[in-house]
Design brief:
Helix content is about 50%, strand content about 10%. Strand 2 and strand 3 form a beta hairpin. It contains seven helices and four strands; from the N terminus they run E-E-E-E-H-H-H-H-H-H-H. It folds into two domains: about 70 residues, Beta-clip-like (Beta Complex); about 80 residues, Serine Threonine Protein Phosphatase 5, Tetratricopeptide repeat. The chain is globular and about 50 Å long. A two-stranded parallel ribbon has the order 1-4. The protein has a two-stranded antiparallel ribbon with strand order 2-3. The chain is mainly alpha-helical and about 160 residues long. This is SET and MYND domain containing 3.
Length: about 160
């Protein structure tokens, strides 16, 4: 699907159903509006997105989100020391395989989320990554209700 251009605020996503590639809209698209997808993980500050795009695809993005840096403040909101601690912890998670490893990941996530509840809003990207990590741990441990609670916290910021 190389005919769709990049935007950090895309109006479409690519999904696979079996061996079939589908282009799905993620919001209302106006007549004549270009269809776009994000080539990279969108949940990063503008400067990080630009670095990834330059390194991986050899271009600089000039979408409205990059020009205005509109969401950057929300993505890095909260106490810097708190989000750096969470950022480092998420980077160390690795690839848990056993139930015991998933239990350890969940315990770490719960401790960090509880300790930083008043220091970071749910819009902080590193807190969101920690919530995703906690949700993954709950899913792997078959704790469906807990997974749903963590997942629900990520919905509004991801929009």
């Amino acid at each position: 699907m190389s005919l769709v251009n990049h935007s950090c605020d895309p109006n479409c996503v690519i999904v696979f159903e079996g061996r079939q590639l589908l282009l799905r809209s993620v919001r209302e698209i106006q007549i004549g509006e270009e269809l776009t997808i994000s080539y990279i993980e969108s949940l990063m500050p503008s400067s990080e997105r630009q670095k990834h795009l330059k390194r991986q695809y050899c271009f600089e993005c000039n979408c409205l989100l990059c020009k205005t840096q509109e969401k950057d403040a929300d993505m890095l909101a909260g106490e810097e020391q708190a989000w750096k601690e969470i950022k480092d912890a998420v980077a160390k998670v690795g690839d848990p395989r056993s139930q015991e490893e998933w239990e350890q990941v969940l315990a770490m996530c719960q401790a960090l989320l509880n300790n930083n509840a008043d220091r970071l809003p749910d819009t902080n990207i590193y807190l969101l990554k920690m919530l995703d990590c906690a949700m993954d741990a709950c899913i792997n441990l078959r704790r469906w209700e807990e997974a749903l609670l963590y997942g629900n916290r990520t919905l509004k910021p991801y929009r």
